[in-house]
Amino acid sequence: MKRTNLLSEVKKTVGRYRLLQKNDKVLIALSGGADSVVLLTLLLELKHTFGLSFHLAHLNHCLRGRESDEDAEWTEALAGRLAIPITIEKRNVLEWARREGYSLEEGARKVRYAFLSNAADKVNATKIATGHTLDDQAETVLLRLLRGTGLSGLAAIAPKRGRVIRPLIELTRQEIVGYLRAKGVEYRRDSSNLQLKYPRNRLRLELIPFLKKEFNAKITELLGRYGELAYVDNSYLETVARGAFSTVLILRNVSRIVLDRQKLLLLHPALSRRVIRIAIKEMKGDLRGIKSKHILSSLELLTGKRLELPSGLILTRQYENLVISLTERKCEAFSYGLCVPGTVVLKETGMTLVAEFLDRDFLPKDSKSRSPEEVYFDFDRIHLPLIVRNRRIGDRMHPLGMKGERKLKDILIDDKIPRNERERIPLLVDTEGLLWIIGNRRSERAKITDVTERIVRIRAAADRI
């Protein structure tokens, strides 16, 4: 059935997935293509309904020479006509992808989302809106299916993930282009979308049209629905698996995770496999290079001794425990600035740190209920700037609840952190010294008191977008 009122459909999607709240500041990813232009147009229609404010963001990927530059110029001109501020930056995506060992599509995605996240932090945006459509969903589901993915992979493009929202995810590309033509709205066309050297383009231009003609004219809607069902089921299973992971977890730090083998064996296979996936992702920061066969082999290790996985990951059975660790490697000195609010990704450890202000009403009352991956400080007692780095000679800290300062080396020895792992442990410091051994102990300094006015929460998590 052809839908003519796209605004009404987007309102349904926004309501169904709770994509927007009152007074959201939305960073809109504006490539200049049809999808992003419709996204901008329809969100402007919702401005007064939700009290929204906007900032636009355009990334020049440097993939199409002058054409890419013209896209940037076009988006800047559009932003000017609409009187909406815009952030435009340029990245050599191809060079970055080659250097980091990613495919062009995967590399472009990582660079793009890093850019959007940083841009959102700088303008204090509460949401990042992208123009993904039902066609994008269908293509991603089919592409991953052909590559042999599991349920989590079929849960392709989520309508909402963190602060990233996709209001057009239930609209087809045909509906979007038709809308623009009917309104007489201009948009940019990406010539690389016609190049068959890219797998996604071959699928879009050849395979899906063939499936529509020979098997099912509604294949796009069918695949999109499949992706939606997979997303719902996978979200539930991930929540249950997270709980199961907590029950089998014995130890977690930046260099190893230890799981209780007996408790792991008692889990349903659907959960035990996901627990292993969670542990691997927590350990190495992502699941790149990890296949279903690796997960199954990891479970079989429960009756063996040692298994080596891609990216230098080692799984070892130690008595009744399963230990997941990284091979020993020298970690060079690193240092990153952390703004409040703000986000920083530590490429050396595969960890992301997020700093944000917190209302006292949301501060956990029981200190025992607090995760070791998050800490709370009195912001006005921190001596800025905040830096995240690994250890340096002479590092000392006054651990919370203890008397006086201690050498960092002695603290790590007491906590039984292996010598080869100590260089990788990230530390949060200000100009006065150590505040937090991330994932471990925190300092007595800048703790929350009854007179604290501004609370900052800092969370550590595996690096994922």
From TrEMBL:
Binding site for ATP: 31-36
Boundaries of every Lysidine-tRNA(Ile) synthetase C-terminal domain copy: 386-458
Key words, A-Z: ATP-binding, Cytoplasm, Ligase, Nucleotide-binding, tRNA processing
Compartment annotation: Cytoplasm
GO molecular function term, any single one: ATP binding
Recorded superkingdom: Bacteria
Stretches assigned to coiled coil: none
GO biological process: tRNA modification
Top-level class of the enzyme under EC nomenclature: ligase
Record GO cellular component, one term: cytoplasm
Reaction(s) catalysed by this chain's protein: cytidine(34) in tRNA(Ile2) + L-lysine + ATP = lysidine(34) in tRNA(Ile2) + AMP + diphosphate + H(+)
Purpose: Ligates lysine onto the cytidine present at position 34 of the AUA codon-specific tRNA(Ile) that contains the anticodon CAU, in an ATP-dependent manner. Cytidine is converted to lysidine, thus changing the amino acid specificity of the tRNA from methionine to isoleucine.
Domain comment as written in the entry: The N-terminal region contains the highly conserved SGGXDS motif, predicted to be a P-loop motif involved in ATP binding.
Family, per entry: Belongs to the tRNA(Ile)-lysidine synthase family.
Protein name: tRNA(Ile)-lysidine synthase
Gene name of this polypeptide: tilS
